[in-house]
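Database export, one record per block. Field names are fixed; values are copied verbatim from the stored entry.
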Amino acid sequence: MNEQEWLACADPHWMLEVLRGKVSERKVRLFAVACCRHVWDLLPDRRSRTAVEVAERYADRLADARQQAGVLGQALAAANRTTGRAAWAPYWAAKKNISESVWNACEAALDGTARQAVYRAHSAGADEASAWEDAQSAGAREQARLLRDILGNPFRPAKLDAAWLHWQGGLVRMSATSRPWRSWPTLLRMPAVRMPTC
């Protein structure tokens, strides 16, 4: 795959397969989470939504393995209570070994949107097969877009300028006329925040 193919690709399976072993588990999990969020309206059970939220925090190391395992059982129970295939996406997104379950999450989300399209087509007396195909194609294009948003362009990796890491003596450099000192009391009272790593 070259850069033009990457930018035009509408097959998220192929895109991730090309990058197998070169993508962090965090980004793979965030992709599975994004697929779940794309079908959020098809996840009415709070347990499914909680599983997605915990999976996202787990990717950023803001939830531990115990929390992740706890929501996994809840997501399974929620998926077993519904006939909608999309309800399985949160279960797969919360699985420990995300590299093996990411496609199950994405397929469940795709299948959920396609089934919803078929239901609407049936209700309207329209062609159900076309509705299925159109929804599958649109869903795959959306998942490919989500994957590009999360992974960026692997053919043009972001470059870090060493000057960005050089300490400049404080939060803000200013001229004598800029008056940012008005916000200093607020800045000084703010607690330190630990940012998650990429």
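Remark 1: The mean pLDDT is 84.
Remark 2: The chain has one domain: 3-151.
End of record.
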